[in-house]
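We treat protein structure as text, and this decision shapes the records that our systems exchange. The remainder of this section carries one protein's record, kept here as part of the documentation:
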Amino acid sequence: MTISQPDCSEPVEIAKDIYWVGSRNDKGFESNAYLRVFKGNGQQFNLLIDPGPSPDFNTIAGKIEQVLGADFNLDLVYLNHQDPDVCINTVAFQRHFPQLHIVTSEDTWRLVRFYGLKEKQFIATENFKSGKIKVKTGHRLRLIPTPYAHFRGACCLFDEEQKVLFSGDLFGGLTDTPDLYAEKDYWEGMKTFHEIYMPTNLALKKAVKDFRQQAGDMKMIASQHGKIIRADLIDYFMPKLEALPVGLDLKGESQLVRENYIKAFNAILDKVEKDVNSDTVNTLLKAFQSDGTFPNSLITKNNRIYSLRVPVDDAFKLFSNELCQNLDNNQKKLVRTIVLNCLADWNISVEIPCPGYVDDRHETAAEQAIFEEGQSKTGAESKPLDFDQDELENMLDGLMDD
């Protein structure tokens, strides 16, 4: 089932009084910022969560203004951790709103203070002894520390009223579409992101365990990168992330295996450039050229693949998806043959050499004959031959005769 996707050029209300105010730059490594508007007890309290990187400031500020009006005010900024893509815009917002307070962990503050933030307006998460922030409107936010996922001082935020988990880098991922809401195919981008950025599965296991215990009734996961996970897919992604080997857990392939893949990739590019078209190769190489937003999974140099930053199986998936995505079926058929032949030259086998290729060949006469004799085309099973005991004994005796 395809999810209806919102217009990301506007602020998106992902839950009541919770707005996505981020940007979509179509770079594969998107950042998300969230505005929570609390109303109650005759008051309003505006919270900005992970205000994002400086290139997105104008977009984020503009979307906040669309929600709150031209004379808006921000009361509090919450920072999951210290990375500039998460929090550097806090500097600009604090200049606009001199009384703006910042809540983050002590470990995070030790680093973000060097951005020039005001120490007198810093409030440590450790100061909330109950593990909850009580807002003057009567609402509560639960603090869930996630040490070493990926930073020692990372701390997630759970909105108890709307059941939204603001998860920071956890559940973030690389994307190949500007869509806001995740579908199951988001897993590949999430997997790659965590393999590169998370230090060990122990940190993921602890985080997921704590989420189940402290935010078990969550209805949405709003991460700082990638796509938002809605209720129907939480139980799909959570066990996958919990079991994912990352960082130090990954068994490094031998250098010879990695070199074989790199040589096979480049042989494929040579053949595709010669026998299909050079635009396909140029598009693929451009896709893997880093713009500085994320360390690319495949590193290019001199218009060819130079090294791999991810396991070889993941590298091939990324390579083949990019290679085949803009080809028609006839071109995919040719590329499929090229890929299989080049991989075979380097003793590599794969299940899907060219994603999206549809085999439209006609059945041979022999295949048609098989189907005519009683097998269905779907779910056809070959049944074992049926012999009685005497026949079996005679066959065995015959095999043993001199």
User: Anything to note?
Assistant: The first strand starts at residue 12 and ends at 15.
